[in-house]
Amino acid sequence: MRLIRRERADGGLDLVGSGPAKPGPAGFVLGKDHAYFLTAPKGWLMDPADAAKDKVGAVFHPARAHWPQSNVIIYTDFFKRAKGMQAPADAMRADIVLFKKEGSVVHPTKKPSIKTKLGGLIGEVYYWGPDRRGQFDARAYFTYEGYIDYFVLTARDKAAFEQSLPAFEHVVRSYAPQLKV
């Protein structure tokens, strides 16, 4: 696998793999001074080429198809905490503003938090949908060492959404921030 260096707007640096993805891989989301490790659930791919194309830290999709043919995708990224953006609830509210700007009125529903396998970190989880395109989202937000790390499951319909929630929970539970980058 070849790594591509990508500079981020927040000054961070991502290293994104460009080789072929295989079912069940694991990998890192890397920034200038921040990184975390993730694993893909069984039957899903962690796809570095899609991550580079979509300019996010990592993309997961079912092994049988890429987005949009798969009808579902999980992606993750992060940003530095800043004034007005200190907590997961702040990030969730900012996401709602973005949805409203594009014409979708969404009403998040707080769901039970997800605890990571390593370190016992707690992610705040919200569901919403359908948006104006009929898509449903699950989002998990973590704060860690000056960053907000977030995970998004987007599905084209409610059935795909509900069927993919265990995969979303697997990815979120696998979240393991690295102490040294």
List keywords for this structure.
181 residues; seven-stranded antiparallel beta sheet; three-stranded antiparallel beta sheet; 12 strands; 21% helix
Structural overview:
- The chain is an alpha+beta fold and 181 residues long.
- It contains 3 helices and 12 strands; from the N terminus they run E-E-E-E-E-H-E-E-H-E-E-E-E-H-E.
- Strand 3 and strand 4 (35-39) form a beta hairpin.
- It is globular, with a radius of gyration of 15 Å.
- Residues 1-6 and 11-24 have low confidence and may be disordered.
Strand content of the residues, in percent?
35-45%
| Largest pleated sheet | 7 strands, antiparallel
Uncertain runs with pLDDT below 50, 5 residues or more?
A: 1-6, 11-24
Radius of gyration: 15 Å
What is the share of helical residues? 10-25%
Task: Give the H and E element order.
Answer: EEEEEHEEHEEEEHE
Q: Overall pLDDT, averaged?
A: 83
Shape, principal axes of CA atoms: globular
Number of helices: 3
Structural class: alpha+beta
Distance from first to last alpha carbon: 20 Å
Number of strands: 12
The neighbouring-strand order within the major sheet is 5-6-7-11-10-9-8
Structure at a glance:
The chain has helices at residues 48-54, 88-101, 158-174, and strands at residues 3-7, 13-17, 26-30, 35-39, 44-46, 58-62, 72-80, 109-115, 122-128, 136-144, 147-155, 176-177. It is of the alpha+beta class and 181 residues long.
